[in-house]
Amino acid sequence: PRVRTKGSLVLYFSIIFSSSAELFLNPFVEEEFILWNKRGDGDVDHFRIPIATWNERGAIVAVSEARKNTSADRSAKFLAVRRMAHSVWSKDAWSPTMFIENDGFASDGVNLGAVLSTTNGTTIVVYGTCMHTCPKTRTFTMTSHDDGLTWGEPVDITEQIGGVYEIFAGGPGYGIQKRHDPHQGRLIFCGWNCTAPFSDDHGKTTGVKCIYSDDEGMRWKSGAWIPGIPYGQEKAAHDFTPSENQLVELSDGSILITTRNDVGYHGPYRVLARSFDA
Length: 278
Prior knowledge:
By secondary structure, this protein is mostly beta strands. It is about 0% helix and about 40% strand. This is Sialidase-1.
């Protein structure tokens, strides 16, 4: 069914029920290179949530959570970055690791999100803080205008996209800049969303939400979201509970989201959602 939800997006939901119509691709590994190894750079215990993005100037920027003392989600972290400034693949072309954010000794620190690169070479990282245990959470962006060589200060966008009592956990994955109409040039991130975190209704108010910017990341707005069903109620096995997700723009300008299906809605499949006006 087609469902109209709050915001500016119209979403079309469909379920993958079978793998019989798969596209048979044949990817192969041309060269392997380890970007991060635990107990390597900074004596970090674990590197998690690795994300790499490429821009039209040929630069690749890779970002990950550097979990300082444990592999746990709830822990103190850095945001780690490595970059390759040109399009010639070479192990020697990667920069050393730099840490662009440091949450100190936080028991529930930064939560990496998603990364995107724009056509003009800007790289934007979206991440949150204290998203597992705190009654109030915050969402930030960090931006580089030189292919990840230098980074600006974190910008708090929490109040632009819902406030401290709402969680937006980007991705994990990458955001996009739209290449086609409608809204060519728009920046979009999607992620897991909860409108009543760490209350008695925490598990009842989750879903998937997208945020967007029409001024190259200066200001952000909330788009529509995909609520869990039944919304506002405890979820049981086989209820609709979308969560971590990835979006892509199709050639007709529509947006396709593929999301985890946490408790097996219609079976052990992923869920697809499509917007025609994003």
